[in-house]
From TrEMBL:
Keyword annotations of the record: Signal, Transport
One of the protein's GO biological processes: transmembrane transport
Pfam family, one: DctP
Family: Belongs to the bacterial solute-binding protein 7 family.
Name of this protein: Uncharacterized protein
Species: marine sediment metagenome
Length: 126
């Protein structure tokens, strides 16, 4: 599993003896604004919205990290063994996912253009 985040942590500890922390996953919550509407806003209003969206994203990220810590603590308290991968193990997992999963996702879920964007944003392997 990726990690006990959000509402998942109470469930994992009830059925799992081990949690492998491979830290590979993300959730996307894009802010979408019609381009004509955006362009009709003053620079000041655009800045206000951009600042608010950036703050909301930062707050959500901080909350996710806190929920992850709380979830790990709950799982440890319930007797779940938390397995932290080495850098080499993490790299091998990321490489396999990028090679196999992303190729499948490109044809079965999203478009090549979208996955090219994801590849462009992906961090280098550790």
């Amino acid at each position: 599993a990726m990690g006990p985040t959000y509402a998942e942590s109470p469930l994992f500890k009830d059925v799992a003896k081990y949690l492998y922390r491979y830290n590979y996953g993300f959730a996307a919550g894009p802010w979408i604004v019609n381009l004509d509407l955006w362009n009709s806003l003053s620079a000041e209003d655009q800045d206000i919205l951009q600042t608010a969206m950036t703050k909301a994203l930062s707050d959500a990220w901080d909350r996710g990290e806190e929920l992850d810590r709380v979830g790990i603590d709950e799982m440890k308290a319930a007797g779940v063994e938390i397995v932290e991968l080495t850098t080499e193990q993490m790299s091998a997992n990321v490489e396999a996912c990028r090679d196999k999963v992303w190729a499948w996702v490109e044809t079965e879920m999203f478009s090549k253009e979208f996955m090219d964007m994801v590849r462009g944003l992906a961090q280098p392997l550790p």
